[in-house]
Design a protein that fits this description.
Bound molecules: pyridoxal-5'-phosphate
Largest sheet of chain A: 5 strands, mixed
Largest interface: A-B, 174 and 174 residues
Oligomer: homodimer
Number of strands of chain A: 11
Shape of chain A: globular
Order of helices and strands of chain A: HHHEHHEHHEHEHEHEEHHEEHEEH
Number of helices of chain A: 14
Strand content of chain A: 5-15%
Distance between the termini of chain A: 60 Å
Helix content of chain A: 40-55%
Strand order of the largest sheet of chain A: 1-10-11-9-8
Radius of gyration of chain A: 25 Å
Structural class of chain A: alpha/beta
Chain lengths: ~475, ~475
């Protein structure tokens, strides 16, 4: 093994890796103890100046192994413990042991998803896992294909790319100037990845028409209908509608069936592809995202294929339809499937189910608690449909103000102030944001099944403790 | 830790992870033994049918931990050992112990690069590493910014995206229909990622003009000049030139200075960005790729920023210019920097230098050997400029045929036949491809510094053994 790690012989390599593993195991033990802080906050300039000997700067001279181990410990020490049961910030959260084992194996195998030649097992696992997911969506064997992508945003980009190609295959060679001006539709509560896709693909963000939602954040089908009509009137070519099952902030579900009916009537792309992001609610370590396409397998290939001969030789001795790299917009592609495959083996459908139910129960528990409090205000009175719960905290000074502009102005400053103190103290973490005409509110989103009711209680107590006197 | 891994308590989790580590360490030991096969080939249908109890299929019932360990062992068994010193196929190859340790830590930290809030250390490491790389390019502190991307292909896509935005900022909101028809230029030997970018971005592959190369695969500056002129004549707007330092197949270096001069004269984008792919020659585990941009930091932000309020709150208590996620076309982003940072600490510049020199020496050794053989034919008589060496093997039956069509036709079939046998036997692996008017030839590309001269000797002996009687 010697020359591999430079100057490291086999025994030293084994020893070094075992030391790293000991550090990681010790980290995990601490992580799951509730007495451990979620983070040890420092401002960028503090971390850059170097803390207690932890320096980020790179020198030209090599460091010794002992120092590297210290660096690793420090990296974890000053990082944020996203796997902590009291981390309620944006996903991903949690740390699944099986998924982690899968990731360690993946990096040891260190291969590349472009061809069956060098990734026979992982390429087939991709097929098996995607097929399983498509079965769950109720798609038959003849229809359907998919791909693992580096994030759900890229999955969404693929879906727009495929839709564009489906309607205008000439776009691949001739570009956007050869086709009509396109219009796409998504709800005003949708994730920004739809707009990013429009910017990247050359469609333009102003050609993404944001359809109005109801109070609960669900797209209003009638609004979609009239938005399509008015786009047509303005000479645009509507081709794509994105609907969300669990919006980012509210966790709202768009009325998929109604929207699909409208799309069918107008011949638009929806129900034709699904972005399914296992690194969110399923708790798979980042990155793990998929796009599933309800079309003939050939579509992905036709849209993206360039047949580079140095990689995709047609005269190989095996079935080269498994050289799936040419379906993608990448070349080298990280193996993201294995950890999910291993987790699926370990948990089965029932394991994932109970894990997700745990998150939904926590959301309901939080909702029920908030409903009965006068110092908190729910953004909605209705039960959460998903694992998101949105709420304001009313410090003492605001509690007697009537709802309205003046209170809103003050309320807007509350969440950022609490969040700042919360990060400085480091015992828990939760995100906040404004949305539409709603001033800054907290959004608690559960995706870590290690979180217990006591952690939810703790979160509220912390908010009160930090915000009471604001 | 119990509920985290479902049904796994702390002791069981620790035990399971240690068992996995033992499997991985045992795999590495075997990997570096030259007596171990590089692969144990099976056709897709064989693997899908299940081999000796290794089944890829997922059931709804959970498997027990013992079975999971067997699954992990089998996954490695039927995979390709890309870290083996006799794996000469496409990159990535090698298995760097420090990089691997970095990846294990990264997956344990399981965080997301979108904000400083949840990735303080990694975000700053990204800045430090990118700055170091820009220093090496000779860029001053005022100019220059960069980003880690999921692969060099995505880096290249970013570069085209930024160039388009630089010339036509209105494209972001208004799309391609608001701007002139664009033309981009790259050499006929360049990587297909440039064409993929054009397809994705809506520029169209036919607007990527492939500039002629000399025999050695280098772009001919005069040809670029006339290609630009003819694009202008055809009403296209030339905006972007890609040049390659180390082409995929030949390892050729385009004449960067001459090309940059031409671009400057015509006001085109080059030298403005560099794709640098540490998961190739630097031996960093996949994925690790960067784009470096010689422009004001703000460009990346302006081009891609959408200011999603749920993520990038402007009223946070720290310097939010470190919330670099809004520079990217992703949302969630895997931490790719840490393994590179750790390797850099461990090796210093000198470590990387000697590692790469080792690869270049191997290429020269192979070239020198081939020069003196009559059963092999070099694609070039001149010394390799990089770690790629391209050659044909002439089986006995072809050795007395004169060069020309008839021999070429037969020669074209030789490499695939040898490769097929080679994979079936599994003792080594090398890639082949045709290029331009050259029929199928082998390309040996060195990027694993564990490879020794004896491995190079072995490769040639194997080719002779498998191909002699063809
Ligand atoms: C010259 C060149 N550029 C870009 C790439 C793409 O890199 P990646 O596989 O990381 O996407 C390659 C890959 O082989 C390449 O050879
Ligand atoms: C509804 C929705 N879609 C897509 C995404 C993007 O996923 P990723 O972060 O994997 O790119 C998110 C991320 O939060 C999301 O909430």
């Amino acid at each position: 093994m010697g020359d591999l790690a430079m100057c490291l012989d086999e025994e030293a390599s084994r020893h070094f890796l075992q030391e790293i593993v000991n550090i990681l195991l010790a980290y995990m033990c601490k992580l799951f103890k509730r007495s451990t802080k979620v983070l040890d906050f420092h401002h960028p300039h503090q971390l850059k100046e170097g803390l207690e000997g932890f320096t980020l700067e790179l020198s030209d001279q090599p460091e010794n192994l002992e120092q590297l181990l210290v660096d690793c410990r420090d990296t974890l020490k000053y990082g944020v413990k996203t796997g902590h049961p009291r981390f309620f910030n944006q996903l991903s959260s949690g740390l699944d042991i099986i998924g982690l084992a899968g990731e360690w194996l993946t990096s040891t195998a260190n291969t590349n998803m472009f061809t069956y030649e060098i990734s026979p097992v992982f390429i087939l696992m991709e097929e098996v896992v995607l097929r399983k997911m498509m079965d769950m969506l109720g798609w038959s064997n003849e229809e359907g294909d998919g791909i693992f992508c580096p994030g759900g945003t890229v999955s969404n980009l693929y879906s727009v790319l495929l839709a564009r190609y489906h309607f205008f295959p000439e776009v691949k060679s001739r570009g956007m100037s050869a086709i009509p001006r396109l219009a796409m539709f998504t709800s005003s509560h949708s994730h920004y990845s739809i707009q990013k896709s429009a910017a990247v693909l050359g469609i333009g963000t102003e050609n993404v028409l944001l359809v109005k939602c109801d109070e609960r954040g669900k797209m209003i089908p009638g609004e979609l209908e009239s938005s399509i009509a008015s786009a047509k009137d303005r000479g645009l070519y509507p081709f794509y509608v994105s609907a969300t099952a669990g919006t980012t902030v509210y966790g709202a579900f768009d009325p998929l069936n109604d929207i699909a009916d409208i799309c069918e009537r107008h011949g638009l792309w929806i129900a034709s592809s699904v972005t399914w992001n296992p690194h969110k609610m399923m708790g798979v370590p980042l990155q793990c995202a998929t796009l599933l396409v309800r079309k003939k397998v050939s579509l992905n290939f036709e849209c993206n294929q360039l047949c580079a001969e140095y990689l995709f030789q047609p005269d190989k001795h095996y079935d080269t339809s498994y050289d799936t790299g040419d379906k993608t917009i990448q070349c080298g592609r990280h193996v993201d499937v294995f950890k999910l495959w291993l987790m699926w083996k370990a948990k089965g459908m029932e394991g994932f189910e109970s894990q997700i139910n745990k998150c939904l129960e926590n959301a309901e528990y939080l909702f029920d608690k908030l409903k009965n409090r006068t110092d908190f205000l729910l953004v909605f009175e209705s039960k959460p449909e998903h694992s998101n719960v949105c709420f304001w905290y009313l410090p003492h000074s605001l509690r007697n103000l009537p709802p309205g502009c003046e209170r809103d102005k003050k309320l807007h400053a509350v969440a950022p102030k609490i969040k700042a103190k919360m990060m400085e103290e480091g015992l828990t973490m939760i995100g906040y944001q404004p949305l539409g005409n709603k001033v800054n509110f907290f959004r608690c989103v559960f995706s870590n099944s290690a979180t217990q009711r006591e952690d939810v209680d703790f979160l509220l107590d912390e908010i009160v403790r930090l915000g009471h006197d604001l």
